[in-house]
Amino acid sequence: MSGLWAGVRGGRGARLKVLLAAFALVLASGCATTNGSDPRDPLEGFNRSMYAFNDAFDEAIGKPVASAYKSTLPEPVRGWVRNFFANIGDLFIGLNNLLQGKPADSVNDWARFAFNTIFGVFGINDIASEMGLEKHNEDFGQTFGRWGSPSGAYLVWPLAGPSTVRDSAGGLLDLYFDPVRRHQPDDARLFAGLLRAVNQRADLLDASRILEEAALDKYLFQRDAFLQRRRGLIHDGNPPRESPSSRERMNPRLQAEPGAPAADRLFEEPAAAGAAVAEQAHSYEPRLPANYEAVVAASRVRR
Predict the structure, then answer these.
(1) Residue 215 has what pLDDT?
(2) Half-sphere exposure in the Cβ direction for 217 (13 Å, CA)
(3) What pLDDT, on a 0 to 100 scale, did the predictor assign at position 4?
(4) Taking burial as the number of CB atoms within 10 A of a residue's CB, which of 58, 112, 180, 238 is the most buried?
(5) Taking the mean position of all CA atoms in its chain, how far away is CA 128?
(6) Type and span of the H or E element at 74
(7) What CA–CA distances, in Å, run from 79 to 125, 200, 273?
(8) Are 154 and 162 in contact, with CB atoms under 8 Å apart?
(9) How confident is the model at residue 162, as a pLDDT?
(10) Residue 237: its pLDDT value, please?
(11) Does 236 map to a domain?
(12) Does residue 216 sit within a domain?
């Protein structure tokens, strides 16, 4: 692990200066808000300040540590770490599927946990996927959305990254029930939490490079991608049709003809991505590259 610690120590003074500059920006902006063109983001001034701080933190600490971690541990070991934490998550994914009225999916999730824990050596091997048991993505924010709770204003939290009022409330429950956060003793809990965060950030290093190439305004790119992604998750990939957003009404060029290529609307898919553009139809929201979920995740230092 010497490479990891070297990545943490290297350039410490320069990184601290970057973080202090980011804090100064946040303090200078205070809780300033701007009434931007998008009604989903009434706190844009504050959110942009938080985004700038998170970006500086990631450049100073997140990326260097994740890069050192990735270069130190081979992919099979990182895969075991990834699977171990994903297996723990299946417990509460199952709970949220049950609360959303999807009992068959919840049984699937708990069966995944049982098979992977018993036959996958405490979850480090994903035996359940090989058996055909699908991995789901559910949380309390999605559950509130399925119950009819509106998303509320878009928010960017320090370190946690993009969210909404509804997802922030759901995130508190996710955090409260998180088995890693509740684990004892304290040293083991801290180590597990850091290991999970660093492993996730290492998995997204390539996505962060795509973001640099894809977006003229990274803040807008990630905001629109996050909100569209969350809406798709709540409706299991089939969100109801929406009326045009205020930003699109003011700029008719953002409204594509039915069936027209999405890439020429807001963002072009970089050549490195090599993926199709996000799914057409179902929504008038700005359509984004198919890899946008990973790009949005790359902006976050996970809890």
Answers:
(1) 62
(2) 6
(3) 43
(4) 112
(5) 24
(6) none
(7) 8, 10, 22
(8) yes
(9) 96
(10) 85
(11) yes
(12) yes
Query: Quick one: 165 exposed, middle or buried, by C-beta within 10 A (0-12, 13-18, 19+)?
Result: middle
Note the pLDDT tens digit of each residue in 103-123: 999 999 999 999 999 999 999
Q: Which amino acid is at 208?
A: S
141 occurs within a structural domain = no
Query: Hey, CA dihedral for 207, 91, 178, 83, is it positive or negative?
Result: negative
How many CA atoms lie within 13 Å of 159's alpha carbon, on the beta-carbon side? 7
**Model-wide pTM > 0.85:** no
Rounded distance, CA 168 to CA 179, Å? 19
Cβ(231)–Cβ(154) below 8 Å: no
Give CA torsion, residues 239, 243, 247, 248, to 10 deg: 100
Counts of helices then strands in the chain (DSSP H, E): 15, 2
C-alpha span between 244 and 169 (Å, rounded): 27
Those residues whose C-beta lies under 8 Å from the C-beta of residue 237, and which sit 6 or more positions away, are 279
Residue whose structure tokens are 């990326």: 63
232 in a structural domain: yes
Q: Are 47 and 33 in contact (CB under 8 A)?
A: no
- What integer pLDDT is reported at residue 212 of this predicted model? 75
Q: What residue ranges of the chain have pLDDT lower than 70?
A: 1-36, 214-215, 242-303
Q: Which residues of 252-283 are buried (b: 16+ CB within 10 A; e: fewer)?
A: eebebeeeeebbebbbebbeebeeebbeeebb
Q: Could you list the residue range(s) of the whole structural domain that residue 266 is in?
A: 209-298
Task: Quote the number of domains for the chain.
Answer: 1
